Amino acid sequence: MRPLLAVSTAIDWLNEKIGNVCNVLVLAACLVSAVNAMIRYAFSYSSNSWLETQWYMFAVIVMFGSSYTFKRNEHVRVEIIYLMLSERGQLWLDLIGTLVFLVPACLLLSYLSWAMFYNSIIIGEMSNNAGGLLRWPIKFVLTSGFFMVALQGVSEAIKRIAALRGEVTIEAKYERPTQ
Predict the structure, then answer these.
(1) Which of 12-21, 52-61, 80-89 is least confident?
(2) Is residue 74 part of a domain?
(3) Are 64 and 145 in contact (CB under 8 A)?
């Protein structure tokens, strides 16, 4: 189990670094948006490339931020059932949901979006807007973002298996309701 936990730690480290980049991108997107708005109103000048840059940054934040959010166990879940389960039941539910639903779905979406990315890079696809940006980099974000969520799912599954075996503890993010 130790080698798998080392793999899990490496995946967690990678998604932590990606999350730090996403945190900076939130500020950068706000600054680009504010400067673009000021220039548009002060000088009656606007650029589609700056608008698309904002969209691209937002897409990176969403696609890569989701694996970071999953790593931090701050994702959305249906707590009504989850909180009624014992700690061991929660671990089993997390493990089954991750392996049966999350990882296969994210790998499938990553695989299906690869063709879209590949075709875009082959034809050198550009935005239809005047001054627009290349499209393939953002399509790669889609492919790799789904892959990173699947990778984080593997990390979480490893940790849940280790916790079920009593080798590690998982930090509880949710408090049980008191009765």
Answers:
(1) 80-89
(2) yes
(3) yes
Provide the 10 A C-beta neighbour count for residue 13. Answer: 12
Domain membership flag for residue 110:
yes
Instruction: Tell me the whole-structure pTM to 2 decimals.
Output: 0.83
Structural domain count of the chain:
1
Helix axes 48-71, 2-43, angle to 10 degrees: 150
For residue 171, being part of any structural domain is answered with no
Q: What percent of the chain has pLDDT over 70?
A: 94
| Residues of the domain holding 1 | 1-165
Q: Give the per-residue pLDDT at 21.
A: 95
Tokens describing residue 115: 């063709």
Half-sphere exposure of 89 (CA within 13 A, CB side): 7
